[in-house]
Amino acid sequence: METTNLKDGDYCVVVKGTHIGKSGKVSDINTSKTGHITITVEQDNTVRFKTLGRNVVLKTHTK
Fold first, then answer.
1. pLDDT of the residue at 10
2. Which pLDDT band holds residue 25 (cuts at 50, 70, 90)?
3. Phi and psi (nearest 5°) for 21?
């Protein structure tokens, strides 16, 4: 997946890293000094966590 396509409000699923299997809406997109994209993901139950943009894939929300 091309992570440069991430934007606020996109629905994503985490496929790598500590939060694997979790999903939610993307917010707070930042690029670090080293060039890594970090995002905050808000789950449907309003719990938030931070992860790297390369750890997620975009999905269509089916709720």
1. 93
2. very high
3. 95, -15
H or E stretch at 43: none
Instruction: Residue 21: count other Cβ atoms within 10 Å of its Cβ.
Output: 7
State how far Cα 19 lies from the chain centre.
10
Model-level pTM? 0.83
Q: Check: CB of residue 16 under 8 Å from CB of residue 1.
A: no
pLDDT at position 57 is 93
Which token pair is 8?
A: 């606020």
Residue with tokens 């440069």: 4
